[in-house]
Write a structure and sequence with these properties.
The complex is a heterodimer of chains A (129) and B (237).
Chain A (H helix, E strand, L loop, with lengths): L5 E3 L5 E3 L7 H9 L3 H8 L9 H12 L7 H14 L8 H13 L5 H15 L3
Chain B lengths: L2 E3 L2 E3 L10 H15 L5 H12 L4 H12 L1 H9 L1 H6 L22 E5 L4 E6 L8 H4 L4 H4 L1 H9 L1 H7 L9 E6 L5 E5 L11 H7 L2 H5 L27
Helix pairs in contact in B: 3-4, 3-10, 8-9
Classes of the chains: A mainly alpha (129), B alpha/beta (237).
Chain lengths: 129, 237
């Protein structure tokens, strides 16, 4: 579903339509990635949230600031939509991260290939020792 | 590595010894955004360090102070931003001022409960939350399920948190918005006579400050609420 139609919300605000079609790279993360609650169980850790969450929150805040590449309200609405439709089987905060990446790709802020390439480099770096 | 200290053995805290695809995704999204010039690494670091320091303690202390000092309670209800200064939160100057979500630093209103009036806070639109004084919002606060049902069925939702209110208590749901954030000033519970500010602060949990729980002597933890999707979700379009 890809349209450029505008939607009026219950509160009268206008939001762009969201393309909720799956993204291959994110589907791979969704199906193969290990969520924090599983890792906690395996390693006996009781921290309820993964350490990367605060960085993700910072990224969301930064994207909503200044030039406003991804406005807060639109990101949250899209997250709700994607959490209902595409990432319902993934726990929080992993599904928030998937929704964030999804919104950024569908809006053209970054493309799937460059994100895949960056993930590959980051993965090699983080697993290098 | 475990080491011996006399007869006492120090075991390292368990840690996750594996990098997940989600962790890699988070780092990649952030680094790509920085690479594209959407924000700087320095701004991100400053903001994240600031957010990392936030939690519900200042709001809990504000309530405890208000319970102990009628003049402070008056100030808190009349000017939440000014009262926040007394608990170390400056809504204007604390934030890294060059960036950030502007709606975070504008207005705090303290909603005073009475024996016949119970306030509860929601953000029906997204998940606005008084972060400078209450920290990050819990997962359930962000869910459409809580946001949509609280305004329609407040008593039912409060019951799910274990808060059953008598029928003569009015429930008032306050909807956060772009310019205003709210915390609840609950009624001081019986059994806390003679308590110090520190003792009172301990029982003012995050849930009490949102309004889904009442402070209770001996209770210092939040409710663990399972998160369910909305049964009849309202479509956005």
């Amino acid at each position: 579903m890809t349209t450029s139609d505008q939607n009026e919300t219950e509160t009268g605000q206008t939001l762009p339509d969201l393309d909720t079609s799956p993204i291959g790279l994110l589907e791979k993360v969704r199906t193969e990635g290990r969520v924090w609650e599983d890792l906690c169980e395996q390693y006996g850790v009781d921290n309820p949230l993964p350490p990367w969450k605060v960085n993700m929150d910072g990224t969301c805040d930064m994207l909503a600031a200044e030039d406003c590449a991804l406005p807060l309200l639109e990101r949250r609405w899209e997250e709700d939509e994607l959490s209902d439709e595409l990432y319902a089987d993934i726990p929080f905060p992993e599904r928030q991260l998937l929704a964030l990446a999804h919104s950024m790709i569908k809006r053209g802020i970054m493309d799937e290939d460059e994100l895949a390439s960056t993930m590959k480099k980051v993965g090699q770096r983080l697993n290098s020792c | 590595m475990a080491k011996k200290d006399g007869d006492h053995r120090h075991e390292p805290a368990p840690m996750v010894d594996e990098v997940s695809e989600f962790e890699i995704l988070e780092v990649a999204v952030r680094e790509l955004a920085i690479e594209k010039g959407l924000f700087s690494a320095e701004d991100h670091r400053r903001w994240t360090e600031y957010v990392h320091t936030l939690g519900p303690l200042p709001a809990a202390r504000l309530v405890a102070k208000a319970w102990l000092d009628p003049e402070f309670k008056k100030l808190a209800v009349e000017d939440g931003v000014k009262a926040s200064l007394e608990v170390g939160v400056d809504w204007v100057k604390d934030m890294p001022t060059q960036f950030g979500t502007p709606s975070d630093y504008c207005n705090l209103r303290v909603l005073e409960d009475t024996p016949t009036l119970k306030h509860v806070v929601v953000c029906t639109l997204c998940s606005c939350y008084p972060r400078p004084i209450l920290g990050q919002s819990p997962e359930w606060y962000r869910t459409p399920n809580y946001r949509r049902r609280l305004v329609r069925y407040p008593r039912q939702v409060l019951t799910e948190f274990g808060l059953i209110l008598p029928s003569d208590v009015e429930v008032r749901v306050e909807d956060s918005n772009q310019k205003s954030r709210f915390i609840v000033l609950p009624v001081r519970p019986e059994g806390t006579e003679g308590w110090s500010e520190d003792q009172l602060t301990e029982i003012v949990t995050r849930d009490c400050l949102i309004g889904v729980a009442m402070p209770t002597p001996g209770v210092t933890a939040n409710v663990k609420l399972p998160v369910h999707p909305a049964v009849n979700p309202v479509p956005h379009h």
